[in-house]
Amino acid sequence: MKTETQTEAGTAVIVARGVHKHYGPIHAVDGVDLDIRAGELFGLIGHNGAGKSTMFKMMLGLIPATAGDIRIDGAQVSGGNFRAVRRTIGYLPENVVLYDNLTGLETLHFFSRLKGVSQAESGAALERVGLAQAARRRVREYSKGMRQRLGFAQALLGKPRILFLDEPTSGLDPEAIRSFYAILRQLRSEGVTMVITSHILAEIQERVDRLAIMTAGKIQASGTVQALREQMDLPLWFTVRTAQADFAAVRAALAHLPVGAIETHADHLTVPCRRENKMAVIEALAALGGRVRDMTVREPSLEDVFFGFSD
């Protein structure tokens, strides 16, 4: 019987409980619990060697877990029912290995046969990733970015309901990265569940619904980017642009507030403060009127959060 785990905002389509993977004395994955909800874009981030790719391979059933339980869409990955579920999964590995002598179209025909889906999908998949014009070129002539897009196209064959994307933007130029995430937005609107790893934290911080930070085989924290910011209690930074003659007025306006050390620059001041004091700082600066030419507030970046949890 199909079983499902309920989370705060919906059904968890991917559930991991107490998952371990040991290679002799090396604990590549060390007691991971995860709940990934249906239809969300979930990020898994960590240093090289943190266990992300190993976790991917176990969730895909490519390698067995040493201990623990992984279920996808209610089916235990190590069980007999997972074969049917696997047909609904697409996977883009970190290192895409393709046959150089095949054309892009022939490559997708090959993967179509492996997946048991119609070869008629191949052209549409190439079109979707921007390779329609290169469909009949040999893969040996493809750039690194084109190979990556071809790998993404094969992951989309069969209209998967779940996608695992391991460093999917490696080798892509800015335009291709934007196009890639536009496709992910469309897939999410169609209810596809996606799990993505990336070393480019700035790229994913505004795009994932939730994420987990993995270090030394363990999950250190998980949640939305904003929730993790608040959990770390990192300071906000105000940049206050004003004339040097008004620096003293800004300092005086903030003197009664619990802000951090104010830094002086050529044409602005930077002011750190705790989140709960944000509105009080804004009100104090607004009272200065025209003496404040501009003001911006910088939230802690995902990189700040990541290093806060992983250091």
Any overview of this molecule?
- The protein has 311 residues and is α/β, with parallel strands linked by helices.
- It has two domains: 38-47 and 79-230, P-loop containing nucleotide triphosphate hydrolases (Rossmann fold, 3-Layer(aba) Sandwich), CATH 3.40.50.300; 233-310, ACT domain (Alpha-Beta Plaits, 2-Layer Sandwich), CATH 3.30.70.260.
- It is 32% helix and 28% strand.
- It contains eleven helices and 15 strands.
- The protein has helices spanning 52-59, 82-86, 104-115, 121-128, 144-156, 174-189, 201-204, 225-232, 247-254, 278-286, 302-310, and strands spanning 5-7, 10-23, 26-37, 41-46, 67-72, 75-76, 89-92, 162-166, 193-197, 210-215, 218-223, 236-241, 263-264, 268-273, 294-298.
- Strands 7-8-9-4-10-11 form a six-stranded mixed β-sheet, with helices on both faces. Strands 1, 2, 3, 5 and 6 form a five-stranded antiparallel β-sheet that branches.
- Helix 4 (121-128) crosses helix 5 and helix 8 packs across helix 11.
- The protein is globular.
- Residues 1-9 have low confidence and may be disordered.
Main features:
alpha/beta, 11 helices, Rossmann fold, 311 residues, six-stranded mixed beta sheet, single chain, five-stranded antiparallel beta sheet, Alpha-Beta Plaits, 28% strand, 15 strands, disordered N terminus, 2 domains
